[in-house]
Specification:
The complex is a heterodimer of chains A (186) and B (163).
Chain A: H1 6-26, H2 30-40, H3 44-65, H4 78-94, H5 98-106, H6 112-132, E1 143-144, E2 147-148, H7 154-157, H8 163-185
Antiparallel strand pairs in A: 1-2
Helix pairs in contact in A: 2-3, 3-8, 5-6
Chain B: H1 3-8, H2 13-27, H3 41-54, H4 58-61, H5 64-68, H6 73-92, H7 105-122, H8 126-133, H9 139-162
Helix pairs in contact in B: 3-6, 8-9
The chains are: A mainly alpha (186), B mainly alpha (163).
């Protein structure tokens, strides 16, 4: 496992404080972004999500192209779709995702502590599935579309393009989506 | 946007989105300290790992979920700082509520449990999918994002019927 330095921990604290502050002030909620659109047609959080995605799609792919930081590993497979559905149902029923649960705890809404406790229980229960059916999910030797551990990126599938070439297009799509949404709301 | 406004005024979708976007770009630059994209599931997995380790549950910890998906303490510290940051924001703006709403507790219990199981299968949380893996063009991220939208729709309909 990677050894982290004092600078890493200082960065975690500074950025954690900053992010917590801004998320609380903007009342950003990913659950709300999807749920409010489906239930009430409200797009405030969705617009915010599209702005963020437009910015970071460009910069993250630019950084990945030049090896600035290591990519996040999310294995692809049927379990990823099922896991997303289970998580999505959970965050809509629970009234907040992991992030909004934690900022609500910061605001003193203590009932969300129950959500955190049962997230911890759910992770332990879910991880037990890997003991029951060890080769049903990701494991050493698992491949998806020929990629080890199911770790594959869109630019790989598009002829090994540099990430930023695809990232620019993705950023533009999210920027247009934001523009259209903000115009229809106005 | 002035500092005073950032501290005291609620941020609208445009300012909030731009502020979040800038922070998330700076967050991943290693020279600035953290060097990782935003996700909190690692902090929860780190807590669970410590609980299971203390309980001596080594047969569980040796499976591919725990052995392949590492959870560093760094993310846990980031998570704690996030809660403190939101506490400070709420406190200085008179939005700290100090409540325990029993009427919704069963929603939090069921929702929390399902999110926990979901975290195992997608290896991260929804932020880790939408604002981390997807902007990095991860196919796993796109697949999980489709699942999250479907799941949130189903969950929202369940919530609507039971309210």
């Amino acid at each position: 496992m990677t050894d982290y330095t004092l600078a890493n921990y200082a960065g975690a604290i500074v950025f954690g404080l900053l992010l917590g502050f801004v998320v609380q002030r903007s009342r950003y909620c990913m659950t709300g972004a999807i749920r409010d659109y489906f239930l009430f047609g409200i797009t405030r959080n969705l617009q915010m999500t599209f702005i963020v995605l437009a910015i970071i799609s460009f910069f993250y792919t630019l950084f990945l192209t030049y090896g600035v930081f290591r990519p996040t590993m999310v294995p692809a497979g049927w379990f990823t779709l099922v896991g997303g559905i289970i998580f999505g149902i959970g965050m809509a029923i629970g009234g907040g995702c992991v992030t909004s649960t934690f900022y609500r705890i910061g605001e003193g809404q203590w009932n969300y502590v129950a959500s955190v406790i049962f997230m911890l229980v759910g992770i332990i229960a879910g991880s037990w599935l890997f003991n029951v059916a060890p080769y049903a999910f990701f494991y050493e030797g698992y491949t998806f579309l020929g990629y080890d551990y199911g770790l594959v990126w869109l630019n790989d599938l598009l002829g090994d393009l540099p990430p930023v070439a695809v990232g620019v297009v993705q950023a533009a799509i999210f920027a247009i989506a934001y523009y259209k949404l903000s115009k229809s709301e106005a | 946007m002035g500092v005073k406004e950032l501290i005291h005024e609620p941020l609208d979708e445009k300012k909030g989105g731009i502020a979040l976007g800038i922070i998330l770009v700076l967050l991943v630059i290693p020279a600035l300290g953290y060097g990782r994209a935003w996700a909190f599931a690692g902090g929860l997995r780190w807590m669970d790992y410590k609980i299971l380790e203390a309980a001596g549950a080594y047969s569980l910890l040796s499976n591919s979920f725990w052995s392949l998906i590492k959870a560093p303490m760094l993310v846990f510290i980031f998570l704690v700082a996030f809660v403190v940051g939101s506490f400070i924001a709420a406190k200085i703006n008179g939005e700290f509520v100090n409540t325990w709403d029993k009427s919704t507790i069963h929603y939090q219990i069921i929702g929390g449990f399902l999110m926990g199981v979901g975290i195992v299968l997608i290896t991260t949380c929804n932020i880790g999918i939408f604002l981390n893996s997807m902007p990095q063009l991860s196919i796993g991220g796109y697949i999980a994002a489709v699942g999250l939208v479907i799941g949130t729709y189903i969950g929202a309909k369940i919530y609507e019927r039971t309210m």
